[in-house]
Amino acid sequence: MLITAGVWWALTAAGVTLVRADGNIITLGAEGHPDTATSFTAITSTHRLGPHAIADLITTHTGRSEMHVADQKHRQWTDDPRPLLLAPDLSERSLDLLDSAGWSWISPDTRSGVRGNLHLTTRTVRIAPPVEAVPRPAPRGRTPWGTLTMSKYLLTGHAQTQSDLAGHAGIGQPRASQILTDLADRGWVARARHRRVTWQVSHWDALLDWWLASYPGPGGVSSHWLGLEEPMVQVRAAYDVLDAASPAAEPSQEQLHPTLGGGLAADEYAPWAVPAHALLYAPVHADLTPAGLTPVAEQDATLTVTVPRDPGLRPAGALARFGRTLAPGTPLPLTDPFQVLWDLTSARTVDSDQAAGVLREHLRAAAAEVATREIPQA
Questions:
Q1: Are 158 and 114 in a shared domain?
Q2: Do 32 and 86 share a structural domain?
Q3: What is the CATH number of the domain that holds 164?
Q4: Cβ count near 93 (within 10 Å)
Q5: Which of 163, 198, 214 is the last residue of a domain?
Q6: Mind spelling out the 3-state secondary structure of the chain?
Q7: pLDDT along the chain (378 residues), means of 10
Q8: Are 289 and 265 within one domain?
Q9: pTM over 0.90
Q10: Closest Cα partner for 113 from 135, 130, 126, 101?
Q11: Are residues 242 and 281 in the same domain?
């Protein structure tokens, strides 16, 4: 199954977890509700399908799984795998046909974002484009992932266009413009004009303090494991299992890999102390007993694996370049350094505050060097 970054973002934002992927058979579930895990046969199209094509698809696949008719207009699939159509820009008529046939669907819309309707075992999850909020220190309602992600990209010191920032954050340019204007009014970012209009951080500490105070955490679901080997040995073994279970990406998209977070990642970015506990962020969960690990309660764990809800934990562009510059040639992919800083500030270990202070100074110096190098010359 090929999942674009936009679709992946929409699934996580809607609280849907990818449990397993095997070719065109994928298993999805509602976050925190293992009883909702449902297998689907993914039917994909790279171009828009009209109502006639949708009707042909439904006719072709109707006999492949048992169905019963709840009423004259709605059908419900009663065994797995169930059909799931992924196609762009589906019309309302096409969606009516899919809903009447009881099909699940996900449709990236070039104008409004990703929409979808997933019929899980015990519930239906609707996917709708998020309404992004401007920065506010006390999050209420829907978490403004796009705003928070844009802030991380700006914290790198790199000068970036509004279009690039909007793309990385998964939001539209009108909303990106509103957010940038709000940040500029606060004095945290500034606009520069040199060949093209770009935006750059102007008050790094203030923007970082706001981000740390506003970020609610990665969300998602975590599993906890106990191992007897050194933390990095446990991480390498777990990484191999998780990476093998991770979903494939579109040819034009970067493969989704697990990334190292927490104190071990901080030690790669700014060496201070090697922690006794390890943290991995992963696209999917997997059974880690083949890696020599045992599932345990959180307080007994030596390794935590988190499948995050935050789509900003898959960095690209300036944020990815910034991380690679800070820690080139690392043995495993690292979570972005600002997320690692948050990991440290939220940890409850003896030396986490000191490690966070060291990393923050390292990030400030690196961002200042980048910003100075990229100041437009007249």
A1: no
A2: yes
A3: 1.10.10.10
A4: 10
A5: 214
A6: CCECHHHHHHHHHCCEEEEEEECCEEEEEECCCHHHCEEEEEEECCCCCCHHHHHHHHHHHHHHCCEEECCCCCEEECCCCEEEEECCCCCHHHHHHHHHCCCEEEEEECCCEEEEEEECCCCEEEECCCCCCCCCCCCCCCCCHHHHHHHHHHHCCCCECHHHHHHHHCCCHHHHHHHHHHHHHCCCEEEEEECEEEEEECCHHHHHHHHHHHCCCCCCEEEEEECCCCHHHHHHHHHHHHHHHCCCECCCCCCCCCEEEHHHHHHHHCCCCCCCCEEEECCCCCCCHHHCCEECCHHHCCEEEEECCCHHHCCCHHHHHHHHHHCCCCCCCECCHHHHHHHHHHCCCCCHHHHHHHHHHHHHHHHHHHHHHCCCCC
A7: 61 77 79 83 82 85 45 49 87 86 83 80 79 43 83 94 91 92 92 80 93 91 92 95 76 71 94 88 90 90 91 84 91 94 85 88 93 65
A8: yes
A9: no
A10: 130
A11: yes
In a domain, 272, yes or no: yes
- Same domain, yes or no: 80 and 121: yes
Q: Do 166 and 242 share a structural domain?
A: no
Phi, psi (rounded to 5 degrees) for 303: -145, 130
Q: Is residue 112 part of a domain?
A: yes
Angle subtended at Cα 21 by Cα 19 and Cα 26, rounded to the nearest 5 degrees:
80
CB half-sphere exposure, 310, CA atoms < 13 A: 21
The CATH number of the domain holding residue 348 is 3.30.460
Rg from Cα positions in the chain: 22
The span from the CA of 284 to the CA of 288, in Å, is 12
Domain range for 175: 145-214
CB 260 within 8 A of CB 222: no
- 8 Å CB contact between 39 and 22: no
Question: For residue 190, what are the β-bridge partners?
Answer: 200
Domain co-membership, 155 together with 118: no
CB burial of 356-374 (b: ≥16 within 10 Å; e: otherwise) equals bebbbebbeebbeebbeeb
What residue has token string 């307080």? 299
Are 166 and 103 contained in the same domain?
Answer: no
**Structural domain contains residue 377:** no
Number of domains in the chain: 3
As a whole number of angstroms, the distance between CA 226 and CA 298 comes to 9
Q: How far apart are alpha carbons 168 and 153 in whole angstroms? A: 8
